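pasting for the record
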Amino acid sequence: MATDDTAELQLRSLIEKFDAREQAFIRSVRDAVRKRLPTANELVYDYGTFFVIGYSPNENPTDGIVSLAARPDGMRLYFMHGPKLPDPNKRLKGSGKETRFIHVEDANEMAHPDVEALFAATIERASVPLPETGRGRLIIRTFAGKSLPRPKAKAKAN
């Protein structure tokens, strides 16, 4: 397992594969989620063309609460128990059996009442509660190292 310094360096190398503006955006969203879930472990998975940071009360990904996916086509925030979460304003997208996601356009969205309600609802449904105290660790679960260059993001349709 990587040391904390090594894990941060590996995550930094994943973020640096994006352009400067996207790097700042990824960091700001990560900081906002970390602020919301300070005791959760961050489990990082490198999939070559994108990476995911899962937030879990332990080192088990199946006990995760939410996940951030930094992709060439934008940032997504996935909520566990997505199909069962109350979503009166229809923010959640996708058709997965376990998760639903929102497209994140700005880190300030993490404080939006709709998103905060989704966080609270998914935390409430967690099979393993988050620790009440302490600080979660950054854990690199998969790291491809010298992966292929990321494709450029396609223009978003309006």
